[in-house]
């Protein structure tokens, strides 16, 4: 390998890029000073006011709107890849980000460019300031962190312009800031218990909130759901007068086989079957996400619904395009290998249902001689439920904490882990960089074929990713995701 050339002299273009990046960091700091995104304020008044002042940019493009508890980001990325490979200009909005705020807003499959982010920010800032001023007069909260980013994304998509944007709900549905968009197709990934302090304590409560994205004139696609969730979704679909299709009934995964670097699936869509589809992601849950993505795109391309219960027939997609689109899918932070020898995976599982999916993927797809868990969980999460889901697949556990102010104290987590795993299987390490080294050493003790799985929160996955140098894969990173995030 030839040595790298030393950097040449700075150019005016380099100076401009540096100034833009410096300004981006200042803007992010200002945005972070707003109400955090994990605190849901149940109103759409502020985001509606901002978008109306901007001329409602969310009406300038078609949209596929995605809610659920787990699998939203992966499903959004699959849908976007399918649409882009079918020749459409795409936008993608996801949350939270792992390292760079620009990850949230994708255009043509890549994080929004710094210049485009700054231009969209400058475009929306006067409207945001007007709404903030009006709120202050009446003693009400100003525009939140998440609301500002939603407005920025919608403005950027309209300016690009994109043909269609695939938009992930932040939390819930009815009161989520993304819900000022009217999706032509609405997608519901599996719903479980999470964010109970904002969404309710039962599956029925949570499903009712998430069903708020289902609107008249749209079509809806759902992953596999518990029966109480199905009842809520069907009631909502009947209220708004459209058909809702479910995985396992109208479409689904026909076959699935583990493969090097992922899996090969045969999918039954609404418009036909798609065989020998390589998906470079691990776990049966990702196969189910792929089935939902195909059904959503088939319905999106079908055209306008012809009646409340008889929508136009779903499109049959080109199988070669489907294969190419899925082969190109990435989902950073989702059972992602970020180091070899020993293998280190990061996974953003942060609730019991996500941990169960991770455990199933580890059991089904790998046969490690020793699997060491590196757990960093937030204090407001069901840590016991996460640990109990992972206990059967982890031989040893290292507990630590990310930099998030919401992190569970290490001593408290160690006590809980000792109850679940047994004290002899638990190590407690205060600092995450040290915890990575301890976990890797424990894996190395077992010889070749061992692994470390860093999980428990999005911030833990992000910071391990950053510390091991994998952050360049998703954008130019400075720091891992902050305590602001929805998780």
What is the fold's blueprint, element by element?
Layout: H1 12-32, H2 45-53, E1 62-67, H3 72-85, E2 90-93, E3 105-107, E4 110-111, H4 114-137, H5 145-159, E5 164-168, E6 185-188, H6 196-199, H7 203-210, E7 219-222, H8 227-240, E8 244-246, E9 252-259, E10 262-268, E11 273-279, H9 284-300, H10 319-327, E12 336-339, E13 343-346, H11 352-365, E14 370-375, H12 383-390, E15 396-401, H13 410-421, E16 426-431, H14 432-445, E17 450-455, H15 458-467
Parallel strand pairs: 1-5, 1-6, 2-5, 6-7, 7-8, 13-17, 14-15, 14-17, 15-16
Antiparallel strand pairs: 2-3, 3-4, 9-10, 10-11, 12-13
Short description:
The chain has 487 residues and is α/β, with parallel strands linked by helices. The protein is 40% helix and 17% strand.
Name some characteristics of this structure.
487 residues; alpha/beta; UDP-N-acetylmuramoyl-L-alanine:D-glutamate ligase; Protein-Tyrosine Phosphatase, Chain A; 2 domains; eight-stranded mixed β-sheet; six-stranded mixed β-sheet; globular
Describe the structure.
There is one protein chain. The protein is of the alpha/beta class and 487 residues long. The protein has 2 domains: 22-327, UDP-N-acetylmuramoyl-L-alanine:D-glutamate ligase (3-Layer(aba) Sandwich); 336-474, Protein-Tyrosine Phosphatase, Chain A. It is built from 15 helices and 17 strands. A hairpin with a 2-residue loop joins strand 9 (252-259) and strand 10 (262-268). Helix 1 runs parallel beside helix 4 (114-137), helix 3 packs across helix 9 and helix 12 crosses helix 13 (410-421).
